[in-house]
Design a protein that fits this description.
The chain is mainly α. The chain has helices at about 1-30, 35-55, 60-80, 85-110, 110-120, 125, 130-150, 160-180, 185-225, 240.
């Protein structure tokens, strides 16, 4: 009886702490970001604590629900920064969603006896071959996804090439795991999943920076054409065209005439 009362007290304390933390966390997101981010955070708590954890004992679908939980954080970060969601955010969510299957399935393969003893319904326990097939299938889906991601505007087009190389390596390890599911091939695949995200997100970030710098150079060329082309300089003062001060800082000191264009500054000094 004492053991039962102690267990009930611990469970009640855990539920109380979780509820308070969840409410406070959602409130912080609402106060310091925006309602969309707070809503996504609250939905993730409900999915993880309410659906994913409960379904573990009843159906292998828990893994797919858990993958949704793991895919939501990029959307939260995107919403916190911009206030909305678009195709760029959805592509990041899709990347995290697909990645989780080879990551978790390879991990659960070597822990399947523990899951079995705990009474958890995992695909690695029920069918090791299908467990490896799901890993391979989702790894293959990452290839076209990464090729298409630059078209959402979040990175430079060169990311498609770099991402393809990394994903083909990923497919290689997933294929080995599928052909011969054993502790070594599962461990190799799992270890690659650990370095996969830093590599992919590193290439995404580098491509994003390069894309922004390239766009800046293109804007500069549009404002100040190359003098060697014979097209001459634009009619407008390049200082104004570059979005710098509303009046030409050089003309301000030379009686209102820009010495570069030879034109009278059209904006009052």
């Amino acid at each position: 009886k004492q053991w039962y009362q102690r267990r009930v007290a611990i469970t009640a304390g855990g539920l109380t702490f979780s509820a308070v933390a969840g409410v406070l966390g959602t409130g912080v997101l609402y106060a310091f970001t925006n309602p969309l981010t707070a809503a996504l955070g609250f939905a993730n708590i409900v999915l993880y604590a309410g659906a994913y954890t409960t379904l573990k004992r009843y159906t292998i679908a828990n893994t797919w629900v858990g993958a949704i939980v793991g895919a939501i954080p990029p959307a939260m970060g995107w919403a916190a920064a911009g206030g909305t969601l678009d195709t760029g955010a959805l592509s990041l969510c899709a990347l995290l969603y697909l990645w989780q299957f080879p990551h978790f399935n390879s991990l659960s393969f070597n822990l399947r006896m523990d899951y079995c003893r705990a009474g958890y319904n995992m695909l690695s326990v029920l069918d090791t071959k299908k467990n490896a097939l799901v890993s391979l299938r989702n790894t293959l889906a990452l290839v076209p996804l990464c090729v298409a991601m630059p078209f959402t505007g979040i990175s430079h087009c060169s990311f498609s090439s770099f991402g393809t190389v990394v994903n083909l390596c990923f497919v290689y390890y997933a294929w080995k795991f599928y052909k011969d599911p054993n502790k070594d091939t599962a461990r190799d695949l799992f270890r690659f999943t650990l370095i996969y995200l830093p590599i992919i997100f590193g290439f995404l970030a580098i491509g994003c920076v390069y894309k922004a710098r390239t766009a800046t150079v293109e804007r500069l060329h549009a404002v100040i054409p190359d003098m060697h082309t014979g097209l001459g300089l634009p009619e407008m003062c390049p200082f104004v065209g570059l979005g710098l001060p509303d009046t030409c800082p050089v003309a301000r000191k030379s009686g209102g005439v820009c010495p570069i264009t030879g034109k009278q500054d059209s904006i009052p000094l």
